[in-house]
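Exercise 3.2. Students should predict the tertiary structure of the chain below and write it as structure tokens, then compare their answer with the key that follows.

Predict this chain's 3D structure.
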Amino acid sequence: MKKNILILGSEGQIGSHLVSFLKNKKNYNIIRYDITLKKTHDLRNFNNKKLSNVIKKSDFIFFLAFDVGGSKYLKKYENSFKFIENNIKIMQNVFSLIKSYKKKFIFASSQMSNMVVSNYGALKNIGEKYSLSLKVLSVKFWNVYGYENNKLKSHVITDFINMADDQREIKMITDGKEKRDFLYTKDCSRALFEMMENYDYFKKNHPIIDLATSRKISIFNIAKIIKNIFLKKFKIKISIKPSKKKDSVQKNIVNKPSKYFFKFWKPEYSIEKGIQELIVKKKNKEK
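Answer key:
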């Protein structure tokens, strides 16, 4: 019998790629659940019988839903009442239902969860504490990148690619000196699959996993990679304009990746390979 896999936030950056990945696996029935599919999928609704029923019939749940976006989105909205309220409601509702039905699940946290100066980080920290109280699994994502359609919530690599393609200029909001550890969505999906397959081991021995590649690169060098790909592959010249501002969102705080996880999974994509795949996909969609 096929297992029912519920993906809350199935249309988001990580969720949409996880759906595609799991569809190629046997013995799984994928249940997509996202507010962009139907308004009745609003996780903030405390009387949502549909959500209760779909959680009840699920064998495993990926809790990927959150009101979140890239640095420009967080800088603009994370200190607002609505941002805090949205995420508190989402977590309170979902965690309560998962507790009621005693379901296996993975909560999508962030490497920013230990940054108390950030409301987003503080909210993810609360999500981790919920998960620990239920003795289940959390994964801290580190700057996952992949194809995105929502420009308002898009992340830095998507922003840079769009600027390069549309304006022939990458205008940065920082000086670009801050370093990040980027994970491609295809590698991320494989990692989440391994966590699900080895769920009992991880929840017992490593209930919080820092998912990263252990390869740091500066934001400025990300811009240079994009510039070089556009020039070499499409003969398009791109200029880069850094700001004088320092990073005010992550503030260059970096955790240590959970290297023990490399026994189960290793990234297949280099940052250059992943970015090139995204650029080619965008250019092909324009034809």
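Discussion points: The radius of gyration is 19 Å. The longest strand covers residues 3-8.
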